[in-house]
Structures are given as C-alpha cells and as structure tokens.
C-alpha cells in the first residue's frame, strides 16, 4: 500500500506553491524528492505531516486518508526534520518518552531498539542531558534515535546527511536501508544526488511546485546524458535550462 499523493495543490496563505503533485512511495521503497532551492520539497513534506492543508488533492498512507483520520495517519509517520526540534527543558530520555507517548507505544522491544541506537550514536550515557549540552551533530542524532526507534510505516527524512560526520552518514544510510527491508516506506529530500543514487529506488524531481520526473537514478542520469557518478551535475543542467528559458 504505502504513501499515495494524488493531485495535491497547496502551499501557504497568499503563496500557492504545489501544482497537481502526484506520486507514490510503495512499501519497502526509498524515494528521494529532489529539486533546486524553493522547488517545493519542504512544502510537500509539510503537507504530508499535516502542518499544511492542501487546497486540492488527497494524501493517503496505508489506506488512511490524512483529511479523514489525521491522528491515525500521523501515528504512522516518523519524521526527521532538517533542523532538530528539541525542548530545552526536557532531557534526552524525556524526549524519547514524549515521542513514544505521541505514537502511543511504550514497550520493551521499542526501548531495546532505542538503546541500540543510543549506543550506535554514542549517546547511551547521556540520557539525562539537556539539549543545551549537545553539539549540533548530537542534536541531530537525538532526532535520529527518536525517529528510527519507532519503526514507523513511513519514515520521512529531510536532508539526512546535514551536519553529520561521515561515520554517522554511513550509519544513517544503513538504518534507512533496514527500514525499507522491514517493508516500511522512506521518503527523503537531498541535494547530494550521487550519494543518494547508491541507495534510493526512485528520484522525484520537483521544479516550481510541479513534478517533472519520476524514475530510477539510472533513468534520471540517462535522461540527461549523465552517469551515476556525476549525477550531482544534474543541478547545473537545471540551472542552465532555466537561464536559457529566461
Ligand atoms: N512559510 C512560508 N510562507 C510563504 N511561502 C513560503 C514559506 N515557506 C516556503 N515558502 C515558499 O514556498 C516555495 C517552496 O519552498 P520550499 O521550502 O518548499 O522549497 P524547497 O524545495 O524545500 O527548498 P530548499 O532546497 O531551499 O529547502 C518557495 O517559493 C518559498 O519561498
């Protein structure tokens, strides 16, 4: 089943951004939304997590419509935003408790997964720390632990590599792949196309709020005379096309 976005138009008050956006992320699939700055990637995600409401179209996850059952819809999502969202007055452990109660789960399986993740990111002895004591990368890792421990049917990751050292980046790719192997859907955004091409199933190219391309990394490379290794040049080609049009 997975995520089904059908003909979404929407955006912000006085600024309509998305136009007729449709795509799907199947169970066990890893899909990356890509596009230039301002293309509408975050706006699309904000619609899926229910922060924005579309003027038209439907958003469905495993047969649950966001508009009809928002709580049931949102409880299926683990979301890692580009900028960590942490509460200054809550410890790391309290953040994990908060996330679990928001998703109405609190069991030993989830907690043992949380401890494995804490160890992986070397946070296991920092459960009583407050966010002010964490570095930028550590704050991002707290978000990673909180999201990956949920094992949610849909994982959304906005720019998964931002602010992480290369070791942590490799861990994140492995964790994303594990989620997909378990049958969970993964939707991410990235500007690092050659790196993402190694593990995503599909790219969705957004341009000025419309979907321009959906296909495998190889299909995207072929369509623009590129190889998987120089796929990062895709954005240069997009810039050139825009400049030619103007
Ligand atoms: N809060 C807001 N209010 C009004 N317009 C906004 C708001 N946030 C973003 N926009 C506009 O929506 C459009 C799409 O922005 P969005 O943040 O979705 O792009 P993006 O593809 O995520 O870009 P980036 O790669 O820079 O993160 C842009 O024109 C932007 O100016």
Automatic annotation (TrEMBL):
<keyword id="KW-0547">Nucleotide-binding</keyword>
<dbReference type="InterPro" id="IPR051782">
    <property type="entry name" value="ABC_Transporter_VariousFunc"/>
</dbReference>
<feature type="domain" description="ABC transporter">
    <location>
        <begin position="3"/>
        <end position="233"/>
    </location>
</feature>
<dbReference type="InterPro" id="IPR003439">
    <property type="entry name" value="ABC_transporter-like_ATP-bd"/>
</dbReference>
<keyword id="KW-0813">Transport</keyword>
<dbReference type="InterPro" id="IPR003593">
    <property type="entry name" value="AAA+_ATPase"/>
</dbReference>
<dbReference type="GO" id="GO:0016887">
    <property type="term" value="F:ATP hydrolysis activity"/>
</dbReference>
<dbReference type="InterPro" id="IPR017871">
    <property type="entry name" value="ABC_transporter-like_CS"/>
</dbReference>
<dbReference type="InterPro" id="IPR027417">
    <property type="entry name" value="P-loop_NTPase"/>
</dbReference>
<dbReference type="Pfam" id="PF00005">
    <property type="entry name" value="ABC_tran"/>
</dbReference>
<dbReference type="GO" id="GO:0005524">
    <property type="term" value="F:ATP binding"/>
</dbReference>
<protein>
    <submittedName>
        <fullName>ABC transporter ATP-binding protein</fullName>
    </submittedName>
</protein>
<keyword id="KW-0067">ATP-binding</keyword>
């Amino acid at each position: 089943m997975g995520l089904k976005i059908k003909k979404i138009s929407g955006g912000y008050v006085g600024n309509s951004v998305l136009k007729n956006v449709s795509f799907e992320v199947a169970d066990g699939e890893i899909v990356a939304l890509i596009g230039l700055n301002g293309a509408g990637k975050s706006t699309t995600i904000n619609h899926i997590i229910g922060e924005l409401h579309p003027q038209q179209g439907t958003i469905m996850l495993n047969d649950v419509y966001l508009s009809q059952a928002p709580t049931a819809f949102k409880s299926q999502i683990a979301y890692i935003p580009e900028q960590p969202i942490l509460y200054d007055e809550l410890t790391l452990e309290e953040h994990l408790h908060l996330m679990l109660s928001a998703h109405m789960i609190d069991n030993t399986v989830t907690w043992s997964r949380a401890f494995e993740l804490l160890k992986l990111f070397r946070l296991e002895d920092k459960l009583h720390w407050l966010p002010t004591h964490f570095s930028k990368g550590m704050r991002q890792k707290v978000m990673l632990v909180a999201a990956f421990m949920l094992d949610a049917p849909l994982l959304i990751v906005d720019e998964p590599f931002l602010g992480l050292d290369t070791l942590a980046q490799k861990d994140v790719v492995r964790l994303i792949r594990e989620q997909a192997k378990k049958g969970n859907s993964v939707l991410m955004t990235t500007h690092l196309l050659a790196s993402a091409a190694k593990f995503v199933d599909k790219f969705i190219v957004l341009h000025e709020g419309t979907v321009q391309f959906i296909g495998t990394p190889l299909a995207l490379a072929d369509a623009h005379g590129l190889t998987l290794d120089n796929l990062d040049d895709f954005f240069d080609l997009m810039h050139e096309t825009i400049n030619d049009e103007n």
